Amino acid sequence: MGGATRVIVLMPVTRTHRNMGSLSVSGEVATVTVEKIGGIDETTVEVPPGVTVLRGRNATNRTSFLQSVMAAHGSEWASVKGDSDQGRVELSLGEETYTRTLTRTDDGVAGSGLGLLTDSTVADLFAFLLEDNEARRAVERGVDLREIIMRPVDVASIHRQIRAAEQRKEEIDAELDRIASLKRDLPDLERQQADLRDEIAETRDELQRVEDRIDERDADFQTTQKNRDELETALDELQATRSELKRVRDDIQSEQESIAALRDERGNLAVERSGLPESPTERLEALESDIDRLRERKRELSEYTTRLQNVIGFNEELLSGEHREITDAIDAKPESVGDITDQLYKGSKTTCWTCGSQVKPERIESTLQSMRDHLQEMVSEIGSIEDELDELTGQRDKIAETRTRAQELTATIEDVDAEIERRQTTVTDLRERRNNLSARVEELEERVTTLRTEEFDEVLDLHTKANELELELDRLESERDEVSEEIADIESEIRRNNELAAQREEVVDELIDLRSRIDRLEAEATDQFNEKMDDLLDILGYGNIERIWLERTDTPDDPVHNSDDSVTGSTFTLHVVRSTDSGTVYEDTVGHLSESEREVTGLVFALAGYLVHDVYEEVPFMLLDSLEAIDSERIASLVEYFAEFPSYLVVALLPEDAQALSDSYNRITDI
């Protein structure tokens, strides 16, 4: 409609029902400003929380306003007014304002700006219940009800995660078994280490006693001046060499302790690195390739759906009586008169703008419905592509982060390995120095032997004994070091046991959650549908209908228990139970439901999806349109029931249907 901007202000009415929306919108008025969208020229509407009724006849822009609200949420189900190149909608809610602009381009209509939702797929499916809503029409069209309920869930991805978790669990179990075997070997090694320590301590004590006796005897013996000087020189050097040999042994022990500490550090680093999942380069490259492919496919589908939506919108506007200048121009041409049969037909006809002939509006509407169905299929495919893109992008980022951390750990481990190698080289040099000193001790002992007298025999025997003890001490210390290194390696592995056990517990919990996630969602969906359907059948009083209920049946190829990527699984079967006047109960078919009964059933099915996927947590609005198949009194009861769930329920009704609703509801009669 043209003309000046209209501002419609409705005072909020205090409500007593429970509101499930998680957004903090209690008492806040939502303001919707629309320019050049659908059939609306320009308008501003303030919608308070609760129920708002759009009252009016057909072609009064009620549906255009609902589509504008959808566009403000980020939905693509809106079109630019026929006489404009650009439309705009703004939604103010609390302290936040969301603005989107729709621009007509050569390729169709392009949307820009920030909507309330980053992805409106679930809202389009379960909250925006206009006439062509797919969930609402699922019962009537006999489509797979489970597929619609489970569409927001990436079932194939869940199965891939299950297989990956099972593989991680198997790897952890194998590692835990290996560590358990090492634990069984550890007590024997520890006993061997303790025995060696005792032997080393005893050998050190005996060596100390021998060295003390050498010191005592060195002070007592007498010899000639010459022999004494030479012998003293040899003995001094022998004593100094022994002292140096002792210092070298101490250095070897210190280096061994440092190496053990470094091995501990390396073990901890290796534990962390081994806990990281594998991130092969080819997998990362494959993910990048898949992401590029999906983005290109999404771009192509988005361009296609935009063009298709423009065609549908233009034809809908022609059917609703807009663009009279086009139909008038076509009717004015002689060739548009049509054939003799058309002239004889006196019923209502519409001029086809593509060929100029007069056809029944139902024929155009039938073609448009086919186009709408096709458009919905394309939008659904885009949603599936976006879900897969999110999954693949997350996998790619996780792999990249894992690779970076693994590289950091590898570099640190290499530094520690280099330090261990350097110290081991030092130990090797020290051991070589120790061997050289031991050889020098032997040479000095031989030199002392040539200079000795009987008085020196005891001292020389003591030096020989000391040398033997030092060699034995070196052997014991080397054996102890080897055993200690083996124990350190095993203890490093055992330290991983608790971490691996914790990882295994996490993986088991993850498997339990993944395996039950689909079951929980499906069970909740059927429970919600059956509960709400029972409520409404009781409230609406549909004569001989005893019950309409949804049955969930597992099938042999249920992907919850399979290893493939199939998305088939449980079957949802809709049952209709009726009763005769005599009280006999029998099961009927869905095809025998009246139009009113099918409409209510479809709305309840959409409501079940709304509740199962917690749509109310992110979407404050629920929209209802095209309820004419339901009688006025039942519409009033239906609206009252649905009002319990969203923060804002906006309903488009004909004047005679709106009369049956509570006077406390907010009403809009002019848009």
Question: How is this fold's topology laid out?
Answer:
Elements: E1 7-8, E2 30-37, E3 40-47, E4 50-55, H1 62-73, E5 86-93, E6 96-105, E7 108-114, H2 121-126, E8 128-129, H3 134-141, H4 145-150, H5 155-218, H6 225-275, H7 281-319, H8 324-331, H9 340-344, E9 350-351, E10 358-359, H10 361-451, H11 457-540, E11 545-553, E12 571-579, E13 585-588, H12 595-612, E14 621-624, H13 632-642, E15 648-653, H14 655-658, E16 666-668
Parallel strand pairs: 1-3, 4-15, 4-16, 8-14, 14-15
Antiparallel strand pairs: 2-3, 2-5, 5-6, 6-7, 9-10, 11-12, 12-13
Helix pairs in contact: 3-12, 5-11, 6-10, 6-11, 7-10, 10-11, 11-12
Distinctive features:
61% helix, 671 residues, alpha/beta, 6-stranded mixed β-sheet, Rossmann fold, 5-stranded parallel β-sheet, 13% strand, 14 helices, elongated, 16 strands
In short, what is this structure?
The protein has 671 residues and is an alpha/beta fold. It has helices at residues 62-73, 121-126, 134-141, 145-150, 155-218, 225-275, 281-319, 324-331, 340-344, 361-451, 457-540, 595-612, 632-642, 655-658; strands spanning 7-8, 30-37, 40-47, 50-55, 86-93, 96-105, 108-114, 128-129, 350-351, 358-359, 545-553, 571-579, 585-588, 621-624, 648-653, 666-668.
Largest sheet: 6 strands, mixed
Judging from the principal axes of the Cα atoms, what is the shape? elongated
**Structure class:** alpha/beta
- The count of strands amounts to 16
Please report the first level of CATH classification, the CATH class of the domain at 22-116 and 620-670.
Alpha Beta
Number of helices: 14
The ordered string of helix (H) and strand (E) elements is EEEEHEEEHEHHHHHHHEEHHEEEHEHEHE
What is the radius of gyration computed over CA atoms, rounded to a whole number of angstroms? 44 Å
Would you tell me which CATH topology of the domain at 22-116 and 620-670 applies?
Rossmann fold
Quick check: average pLDDT?
A: 83
> Spans of 5+ residues with little confidence (pLDDT < 50)?
1-24, 334-347, 556-567
Distance between the termini: 8 Å
By CATH, the architecture of the domain at 22-116 and 620-670 is named 3-Layer(aba) Sandwich
CATH superfamily of the domain at 22-116 and 620-670: P-loop containing nucleotide triphosphate hydrolases
Query: What is the helical fraction, as a range of percent?
Result: 55-70%
Strand content: 5-15%
Order of adjacent strands in the largest pleated sheet: 1-3-2-5-6-7
